[in-house]
């Protein structure tokens, strides 16, 4: 090993700036003066078009060298960039990348936080095959050609160049935010093996282990060099339950005191309200609490009533009644046929009954709403402050309080509210009251009985929360948590602080498990003195596991789709015991009830496994020649890459599950009802057609399959029940945890999978040289031509492709694109040495232009109308350019800048995605609270009224109001009244999810990035070895590509002056894809395409500083005191704005936020003396604000209005034991920072969630 290290902070001047090889440029670079080992060295970097980007050339950026990689003990090529300030969160092993199964464990880089699809990742200056799957269900829904950096061999990386805006002219399309170029070691000689391992200090988990080796040797008198590397690495997963700061699930929940403060200015008949508003009462809207529990479901199963309204004395529970149907007779059947809201066997109390906008506090702190109307007592108008009064109650209140007949009904209501306590005020004044009396009286769905206490006059019902324990017994359930003893405690029907609710931190992955094998063979052969053959060959096999992937494995009272809704159960179900029935009766349940449970125990495995296999081979020749007395260089290469992804995860077969839980007693056996009744009778009991096996209420989904003629054919798939399914059915016990038989689990569970196949053929040719001599030097050029063909195929297993599980059916996508690019780069020296012009040592222009053209084609298919279609794309030729320049004032100062235009072409998915069904929900702009709002309220109001009339006309001239009454719509006044929904006589927004279809579109245009940078590089002579570089950069991305989501689709439609066809506004008619039912609610069938709209603008300063000094010089001694060095990268974000319409007239800022902090800095102090070296690295992220709209939130709007700064420290120690052995020890997160200051805010995208950990390695070189 080298016994004395050199910290190299030097740069090239401009050599190598244009060419991938450019030997002539290296020859023209100024020669660096001879220096001591302790001084800064000038290093000429070759092998990339832009060299040493942080302090030379025209493009700002950062570089990570071999020494950084070795000393930090990185085992994943993506981790090398994680703490670079100008790199965003991207996709990585931390978490589950948004829960998208196709992206589990991948590492995609995100420069400037503009999105991973806008960062071009290269290896040795060449494109690398992407493994991003051909589906919208990927990390961030970013459907570009991202490269998984974890496939790149760490052991062979020589350095990583990170270039920000302006690299597209040299490297090609898609480099909108910049380029990351991994440069591998070349001409390697010798052998090296490294063993590495580590874990956390405190928890002794998060283990990571690696062994890698490199061997290289010259043959044939040095004309042939072969290098081989191999790596094995294992990184273990970490769950939130493994961390003390996460295990008790801290977080924000609604503050019950917000909006509950009485208004001292209230006087009867006046204009002031009874209560201060939520934005003026100086009460935080939310509070931070540990131990937040979920109250919608448990593993064993929560029990709810089937009623949807509050159980007051005036509206008691009706045993055996299901809303919307006749009373159900007692029957051994598990499910009641005829409910149209479910798949076979599924019942839904009400869409989103316990979630989203319908969530409500366990103890009302404001006038009772929405379920508590006015609890009437024998002696008073209302026991509690009501939200509304009936006409009769208004009359009674006038008499009770002696009110003037001139007061309006609203003013009378205010008087009642002023004289009556809220439920929470009553509880505070009477803390001995059983909190379950409030819950039973006001909260729908919780089992309840008549209140046996003295408060029954005003709180007539007492809640009896119950659940199934793991053994199947029914036990009590603490729903209130802290609220049971603290009237000021928070608590809603979905979340409470404390209590017996679900604490599912074990289901939150802080990091997933990865096992990776990478092999690489690099060789080059000098055929002649002027001709060289080279080859790069890589194979990577990475397996990623998430041990507890439970998406879709539940039936919940908060479920918003039929498959995930709570289960409707009859007390006579054969798997219920006599003791169960007694417990249910004691809770007031003698007929049917709702079971809400996690279903992880009914599948054979909850593990999700993703296998990514990548192969890449690059073969090329390079050389140089002389012509007309000038030297030229060339490089011609072809790359072939193939990436296959196979993902497997557990799912529930919906139809099988429905049949299995619908069990009956036959003699001494429990069997599926379908087996007892027979297929025909079973289907008929649901109102289905025995001839087809289809049951009404099942969701019909669009799918595609190969037709008899071999052409992929779209169709609408209707789930059916077959005789084979009946024969195979096994009854499923869902009462308790783990009580299902293995046979039943085998029947209802399945391992769903999908496969993605990606191939890339990439041919690149470069010619470099000089054309003629200018007074200041030769005019140099680089001509580049590229051809690239990429192919993607994505298909799912049979169940996944037909939507027979809890996921939407996966669309099959098969398509290809062909890109042709060619360009010219010039280096034009205008002034140089010999001109003797003051303040001008050199002046150069570096213009570059590139043209790119994209064509594409997808698989031929037959659409729903029977037409055979072959989608094609023929894009226009796009121009990419850079006009750059450098002005070297003297040896101490260089000024640089560039103006650039870049593009990102549409991807295969954006162009050709098959009709991908998905579940979604949307905020309706035509609701009462939104129809007269938006960017153009008057336009939206007119369009929403017109939409009501249009939907009514399609439904016989009437719509169904929230109260269930058919309401004629014959005028604009009728339509507006329906929207306003006064007295529930109009539009009742359900909030339910619905299905939509998103598809690629062949009329897309490329995204455009316009950028501008200027900056300087300073090497002050009065501080030897100091280099400072700083650049201002600005980029504006327009025509942003993305899917048109449901809420945006509706907003664009109803805010358009072109309604009902808003194509002139956004290039596509989003109005045509909106579907509504007879209640005016959004319903299944939304059609949402990809489109070009919107933009992002970034303005920032990126600065780099490096300095080194020999301590012997500092202290004027001959003793070797070692070398001390300092380096820093500072990123100051001045603006990060997004625009929905792309012209930034509606710009929404997000700089100085947690995602985009104003300041991010990495600073390292390095010390080297003899065989010992040490490094202390500090990463700093500035404090951030929370916004409400475009302004900073106030204490009235957010609990946390400012997030503390976050600082992370890492230590690295190294020692050369001898010439062959080096030992290293690294401590990451030295001070164990796992949260943002004292706020307790936890977010693993911005905060290290693993904690303090060590890694040790031994490297043997021979």
UniProtKB/TrEMBL annotation:
Keywords: Cell outer membrane, Membrane, Receptor, Signal, TonB box. InterPro entries: Beta-barrel_TonB, Beta-barrel_TonB_sf, Plug_dom, Plug_dom_sf. It comes from the Bacteria. It holds the Pfam family TonB_dep_Rec_b-barrel. Residues 747-1230 form the TonB-dependent receptor-like beta-barrel domain. Residues 63-179 form the TonB-dependent receptor plug domain. PANTHER family: PTHR47234, TONB-DEPENDENT RECEPTOR (PTHR47234:SF2). This is TonB-dependent receptor.
């Amino acid at each position: 090993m080298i016994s004395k290290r050199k910290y190299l902070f030097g740069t090239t001047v401009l050599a190598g700036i244009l060419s991938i090889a450019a030997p002539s440029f290296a020859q023209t670079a100024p020669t660096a003066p001879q220096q001591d080992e302790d001084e800064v060295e000038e290093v000429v970097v070759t092998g990339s078009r832009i060299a040493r980007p942080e302090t030379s050339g025209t493009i700002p950026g950062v570089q990570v060298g071999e020494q950084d990689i070795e000393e930090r003990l990185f085992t994943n090529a993506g981790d090398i960039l994680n703490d670079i300030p100008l790199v965003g969160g991207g996709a990585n092993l931390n978490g589950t990348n948004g829960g998208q199964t196709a992206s589990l464990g991948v590492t995609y880089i995100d420069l400037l936080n503009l999105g991973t699809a806008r960062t071009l990742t290269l290896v040795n200056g060449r494109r690398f095959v992407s493994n991003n799957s051909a589906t919208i269900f990927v990390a961030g829904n970013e459907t570009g050609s991202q490269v998984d950096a974890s496939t790149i061999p760490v052991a062979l990386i020589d350095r990583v160049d990170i270039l920000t805006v302006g690299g597209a002219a040299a490297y090609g399309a898609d480099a909108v935010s910049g380029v990351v170029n991994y440069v591998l070691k070349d001409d390697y000689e010798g052998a090296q093996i490294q063993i590495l391992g580590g874990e956390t200090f405190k928890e002794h988990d998060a283990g990571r282990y690696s062994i890698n080796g490199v061997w290289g040797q010259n043959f044939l008198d040095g004309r042939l060099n072969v290098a081989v590397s191999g790596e094995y690495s294992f990184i273990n997963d970490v769950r939130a339950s493994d961390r003390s700061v996460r295990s008790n699930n801290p977080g924000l929940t609604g503050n019950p005191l917000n909006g509950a403060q009485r208004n001292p200015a209230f006087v009867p008949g006046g204009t002031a309200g009874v209560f201060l508003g939520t934005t003026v009462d100086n009460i935080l809207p939310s509070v931070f609490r540990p131990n937040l529990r979920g109250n919608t479901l448990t593993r064993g199963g929560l029990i709810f009533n089937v009623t949807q309204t509050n159980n007051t004395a005036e509206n008691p529970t009706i045993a055996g009644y299901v809303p919307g149907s006749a009373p159900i007779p007692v029957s051994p059947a598990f499910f009641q046929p005829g409910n149209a809201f479910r798949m076979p066997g599924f019942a839904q109390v009400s869409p989103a009954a316990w979630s989203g906008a319908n969530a409500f506090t366990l103890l009302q702190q404001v006038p009772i709403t929405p379920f508590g109307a006015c609890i009437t007592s024998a002696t008073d108008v209302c026991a509690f402050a009501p939200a509304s009064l009936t006409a009769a109650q208004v009359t009674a209140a006038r008499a009770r309080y002696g009110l003037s007949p001139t007061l309006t009904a609203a003013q009378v209501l205010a008087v009642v509210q002023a004289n009556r306590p809220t439920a929470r005020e009553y509880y505070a004044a009477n803390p001995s009251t059983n909190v379950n009396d409030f819950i039973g009286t006001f909260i729908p769905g919780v089992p309840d009985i008549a209140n046996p206490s003295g408060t029954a006059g005003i709180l007539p019902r007492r809640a009896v929360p119950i659940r199934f324990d793991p053994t199947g017994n029914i036990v009590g359930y603490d729903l209130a948590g802290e609220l049971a003893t603290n009237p000021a405690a928070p608590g809603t029907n979905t979340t409470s602080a404390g209590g017996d609710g679900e604490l599912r931190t074990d289901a939150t992955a802080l990091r997933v498990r990865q096992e990776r094998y990478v092999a690489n063979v690099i060789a080059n052969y000098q055929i002649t003195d002027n001709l060289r053959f080279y080859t790069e060959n890589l194979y990577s096999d990475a397996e990623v596991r998430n041990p507890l992937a439970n998406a879709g494995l539940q039936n919940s009272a908060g479920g918003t789709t039929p498959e995930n809704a709570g289960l409707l159960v009859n007390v006579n179900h054969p798997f219920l015991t006599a003791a169960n029935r007694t417990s249910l009766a004691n809770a007031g349940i003698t007929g049917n009830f709702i079971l809400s449970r996690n279903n992880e125990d009914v599948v054979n495995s909850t593990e999700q496994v993703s296998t990514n296999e990548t192969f890449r081979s690059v073969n090329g020749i390079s050389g140089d020649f002389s012509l007309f007395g000038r030297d030229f260089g060339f490089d011609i290469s072809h790359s072939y890459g193939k990436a296959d992804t196979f993902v497997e995860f557990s799912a529930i077969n919906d139809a099988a599950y429905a049949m299995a839980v619908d069990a009956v007693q036959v003699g001494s056996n429990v069997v599926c009802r379908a087996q007892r009744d027979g297929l025909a009778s079973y289907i008929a009991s649901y109102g289905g057609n025995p001839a087809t096996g289809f049951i009404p209420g099942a969701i019909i989904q669009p799918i595609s399959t190969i037709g008899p003629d071999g052409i992929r054919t779209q169709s609408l798939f209707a789930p059916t029940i077959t005789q084979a399914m009946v024969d195979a059915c096994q009854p499923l016990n869902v009462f308790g945890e783990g009580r299902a038989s293995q046979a039943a689990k085998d029947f209802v569970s399945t391992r769903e999978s999908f496969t993605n196949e990606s191939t890339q053929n990439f041919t690149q040719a470069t010619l470099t040289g000089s054309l003629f001599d200018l007074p200041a030097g030769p005019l140099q050029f680089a001509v580049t031509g590229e051809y690239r063909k990429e192919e993607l195929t994505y298909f799912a297993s049979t169940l996944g492709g037909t939507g027979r599980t809890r996921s939407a059916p996966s669309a099959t996508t098969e398509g290809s694109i062909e890109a042709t690019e060619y360009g010219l780069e010039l280096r034009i020296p205008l002034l140089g040495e010999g001109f003797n012009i003051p303040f001008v040592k050199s002046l150069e222009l570096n213009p570059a232009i590139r043209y790119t053209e994209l064509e594409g084609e997808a698989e031929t298919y037959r659409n729903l109308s029977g037409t055979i279609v072959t989608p094609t794309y023929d894009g226009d030729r796009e121009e990419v350019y850079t006009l750059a320049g450098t002005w070297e004032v003297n040896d101490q100062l260089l000024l640089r800048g560039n103006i650039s235009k870049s593009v990102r072409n549409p991807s295969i998915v954006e162009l050709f995605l098959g009709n991908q069904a998905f579940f979604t929900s949307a905020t309706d702009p035509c609701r009462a609270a939104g129809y007269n709002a938006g960017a153009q309220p008057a336009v939206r109001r007119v369009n929403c009224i017109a939409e009501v009339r249009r939907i009514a006309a399609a439904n016989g001239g009437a719509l169904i109001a929230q109260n269930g009454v058919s309401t004629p719509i014959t005028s604009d006044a009728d339509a507006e009244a329906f929207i306003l929904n006064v007295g529930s006589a109009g539009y009742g927004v359900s909030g339910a999810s619905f299905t939509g279809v998103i598809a690629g579109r062949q009329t897309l245009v490329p995204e455009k990035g316009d950028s501008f940078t200027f900056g300087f590089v300073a090497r002050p002579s009065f501080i030897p070895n100091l280099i400072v570089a700083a650049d201002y950069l600005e980029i504006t991305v327009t025509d942003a590509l993305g899917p048109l989501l449901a809420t945006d689709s509706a907003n664009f439609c109803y805010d358009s002056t072109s309604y009902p066809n808003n194509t002139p506004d956004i290039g596509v008619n989003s109005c045509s894809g909106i579907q509504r039912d007879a209640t005016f609610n959004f319903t299944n069938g939304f059609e949402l395409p990809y489109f070009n709209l919107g933009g992002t603008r970034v303005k920032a300063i990126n600065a780099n500083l490096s300095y080194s000094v020999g301590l012997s010089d500092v202290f004027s001694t001959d003793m070797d005191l070692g070398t001390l060095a300092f380096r820093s990268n500072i990123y100051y974000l001045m603006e990060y704005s997004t625009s929905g319409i792309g012209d930034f007239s509606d710009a929404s800022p997000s700089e100085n936020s947690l995602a985009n902090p104003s300041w991010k800095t990495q600073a390292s102090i390095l010390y080297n003396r003899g065989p010992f070296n040490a490094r202390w690295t500090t990463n700093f992220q500035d404090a951030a604000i929370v916004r409400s709209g475009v302004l900073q939130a106030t204490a009235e709007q957010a609990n946390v209005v400012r997030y503390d700064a976050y600082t992370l420290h890492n230590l690295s120690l190294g020692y050369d034991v001898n010439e062959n052995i080096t030992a290293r020890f690294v401590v990451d997160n030295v001070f164990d920072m796992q949260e943002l200051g004292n706020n307790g805010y936890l977010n693993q995208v911005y905060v290290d969630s693993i904690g303090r950990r060590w890694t040790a390695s031994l490297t043997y070189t021979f």
